[in-house]
Amino acid sequence: MAGHSLKYLADLVQGRIEGDPDFTVTGLSALDSAGSSEISFAVNAGAADAVASSSAGALILPEGWPFREDRPRILVSNPYLAFARIASMFASRPFRAGGIHPSAKIGEGCRIDNKVTIEACAVIGDRVEIGPEVTIHPGVVIGNDVQIGSGTELFPNVIVYDGCVIGRNVRIHGGTVIGADGFGYAQGPEGHVKIPQTGIVEIEDDVEIGANTTIDRATFGKTLVCRGAKIDNQVMIAHNVVIGPNSIIVAQVGISGSTRVGSGVMMGGQVGIVGHIEIGDGARIGAKSGVPHSVPPGQTVSGSPAMPHGTWLRMVSLLKRLPEMFKDIRQIKKRLERLENGQG
């Protein structure tokens, strides 16, 4: 079975080799399932027993690993990052163009590179531009005037509305909707008056978007997801939101209209964010937080309403003591009443 030398993998992750640099690695697996020609990893010394019992032929370990180890190994400062890079290398496959399936529907005036795969029952609108090495899976619907960059993959049943722009090397998972109308209405005496949503959604390069996520088109201009952002399943991003480069947004987050999210922001699951605020570069928002105001760059917030994480931890600690504190207060109140009544 073909593989890569340990030296090749060490160079890939900028690690230091101990043991045989020519050891051939055929794959990567977990400690409890790796075979004798595979490499596995441990994040810290807490996995020492699992490492000792593993059948892995080679290991990725943190620098300063405190236990004796005779197998070939790569020592790195961040084993999890090294694992991700090596796993991505083993998982990558060269693109093979499958062409356009006979059942796919292609509109008029499209510019589609010859080196693409468009699978069964995909529907492509008019004047669509699709770059090389794009894969469009079954059931995808692409509206008119959409642009899709090279190396992008749209999984089954993705919908991209008219005019949206998708960059290079983007992955959009099944059931996601890009470019539906933003939720905008004005209240009138006879009901709600819809505000036309005339903008688009633009997804920059190297973005990944999970399944059943929705990103609404802008009222004017564009809703923007910047380069390298990673968005989980079932996220809702409203009209005119900007998601900064390399941000991470976990499942079931909801971001209201015209909010600007900075670079490298991380949001935990089920965070809710009001509209027209700014989340500063590098901010961290804990799971299930409700964010009613802007968050400064680099700050970590939690809770609902969101507050500095340390304050939230102290508040949660006090909440656990409320029954006991209430009992004490009730006893103190009774004593005061007896004193006021001259009962001693």
Describe what this molecule looks like in 3D.
- There is one protein chain.
- This protein has 344 residues and is α/β, with parallel strands linked by helices.
- The chain contains 5 helices and 40 strands.
- The protein has 3 domains: 4-91, Udp-n-acetylmuramoylalanyl-d-glutamate--2,6- Diaminopimelate Ligase, Chain: A, domain 1; 99-310, UDP N-Acetylglucosamine Acyltransferase, domain 1, CATH 2.160.10; 311-340.
- The strands form 6 sheets. The protein has a 12-stranded mixed β-sheet with strand order 8-11-14-17-20-25-28-31-34-37-39-40, covered by helices on one side. A 10-stranded parallel β-sheet has the order 9-12-15-18-21-26-29-32-35-38, with no helix packed on it.
- Helix 2 links the parallel strand 5 and strand 6.
- The model has no long low-confidence stretch (mean pLDDT 95).
Short description:
The chain is an alpha/beta fold and 344 residues long.
Which spans of ≥5 residues are poorly predicted at pLDDT below 50? none
- What is the structural class? alpha/beta
Helix content: 10-25%
Instruction: Count the beta strands.
Output: 40
> CATH top level of the largest domain?
Mainly Beta
List key phrases describing it.
ten-stranded parallel β-sheet; alpha/beta; Udp-n-acetylmuramoylalanyl-d-glutamate--2,6- Diaminopimelate Ligase, Chain: A, domain 1; 5 helices
Topology:
Layout: E1 4-5, H1 6-13, E2 16-18, E3 24-25, E4 27-28, E5 38-41, H2 48-53, E6 58-62, E7 73-76, H3 79-91, E8 99-100, E9 105-106, E10 111-112, E11 117-118, E12 123-124, E13 129-130, E14 135-136, E15 141-142, E16 147-148, E17 153-154, E18 159-160, E19 165-166, E20 171-172, E21 177-180, E22 185-188, E23 191-194, E24 200-203, E25 208-209, E26 214-216, E27 222-225, E28 230-231, E29 236-237, E30 242-243, E31 248-249, E32 254-255, E33 260-261, E34 266-267, E35 272-273, E36 278-279, E37 284-285, E38 290-291, E39 300-302, E40 307-308, H4 309-320, H5 322-340
Parallel strand pairs: 4-5, 5-6, 6-7, 8-11, 9-12, 10-13, 11-14, 12-15, 13-16, 14-17, 15-18, 16-19, 17-20, 18-21, 19-24, 20-25, 21-26, 24-27, 25-28, 26-29, 27-30, 28-31, 29-32, 30-33, 31-34, 32-35, 33-36, 34-37, 35-38, 37-39
Antiparallel strand pairs: 1-3, 2-7, 22-23, 39-40
